[in-house]
């Protein structure tokens, strides 16, 4: 298997300011693959969900959770009112944290129900196809979620427990999402083709483009959180605090230091930066406040459901333009393929032993790769050469990106097998014309994958038998 075998999509995971862990389970599909937003079929009678009430801790309605009822049947599997309620709470928390306007609860509940129906139909299809997810893949996914939220796994477990989410349930939902994502990759990727003519047209369209769809922005923020039931006096005091932070930033104070001093987000180590991402991935509130600003300029305080935000534009650029600087990684790996006779546990144990021998100086990485690796790079000591972001499958690239130069990973499971990865060196580089075309290919592939996925998701949804149930009177 050569380096090209790893190519999948240019998928950059950028969560921005850390979200509450209670909202994390709702985000898992987005961490693994872009999730769909299916609308109710016009041919089916959808029950009135306006009566669904969200239980608050300690409330009387929380006690009534024991009296659960079925809202819909997907093939033979029920969707319960409590499931919809739990997802609805997370959806509201996530939208509030992002500063997005909340739709009417009945409409949001309807969207959540349709999302649950689509998810169950896809999971059933994945199970029926015989797909399985190894425990090591789940552990890697847990680690990835923890690191994206700047937590250790133990801290993640404590945060989940504090939000009333059982760790076993968290792992179970991760397993389901991984299984479905593998089915999506298998079914969707075969439908996607990107031609040279597609790339030429894309680059022509990007030349001189100023539309928001091709704009990439990196914003940093100071968030002064406002409690849910804050009094007008408390809100005024917090607004004054946000204004003081904004005034000091405009007077020339170091923004990263102000983040550490004032901000209620957890992204302090990055100076409050949310990462370079497409403008459409930011809340409209943030875009409206910064649309006329240049790099280094400030906006705010602006008010959202989460609190008061002071925003700084770190970088703005058009996707696909020349002079793009990227970080390239030079790495190597040892790949052990899995089979009925050689399972994941045996592969992990074998690679752990190889890592131990390398670190103790008994052998070297290149020699072990030549002897054991089942990849085409084995003859070169596992050397994968210089790689741009997005060239490897996400599970491999995420593990690689966590390594410092010279560091060797623990065994990492991907769809190709189990890997031992070592980063040799990194460098900043400017994209060549060839690299820009490859980046354009990845962007187009991702777009076509999303379109193909939506079509596939609709097909899966269409094949499912769905029966809506009216709430008990």
CATH C-level of the largest domain: Mainly Alpha
In quaternary terms, these chains amount to: single chain
How many helices? The count is 15
The CATH homologous superfamily of the largest domain is termed Porin chaperone SurA, peptide-binding domain
Mean pLDDT: 77
Strand order of the largest sheet: 4-3-6-5
Q: What composes the largest sheet?
A: 4 strands, antiparallel
What's the architecture of the largest domain in CATH terms?
Answer: Orthogonal Bundle
| Radius of gyration, in angstroms, nearest whole number | 24 Å
Structural class: alpha+beta
Amino- and carboxy-terminal Cα gap: 60 Å
Quick one: how many beta strands?
11
CATH topology of the largest domain: Triger factor/SurA peptide-binding fold
- Give the overall shape: globular
Query: Would you identify the regions where 5 or more consecutive residues have pLDDT less than 50?
Result: 1-66
Overall tally of domains? 3
Order of helices and strands: HHEEHHHHHHEHHEHEEEHHEHEEHE
Q: Percent of residues in helical segments?
A: 40-55%
Q: What percent of residues are in strands?
A: 15-25%
Structure in words:
This protein has 473 residues and is α+β, with helices and mostly antiparallel strands. It folds into three domains: 3-191, Orthogonal Bundle (Triger factor/SurA peptide-binding fold), CATH 1.10.4030; 212-318, Chitinase A, domain 3 (Roll), CATH 3.10.50; 325-430, Chitinase A, domain 3, CATH 3.10.50.40. It has 15 helices and eleven strands. The protein has a four-stranded antiparallel β-sheet with strand order 4-3-6-5. It has a four-stranded antiparallel β-sheet with strand order 8-7-10-9. A hairpin with a 3-residue loop joins strand 5 (298-303) and strand 6. The protein is globular and about 70 Å long. The N and C termini lie far apart (60 Å).
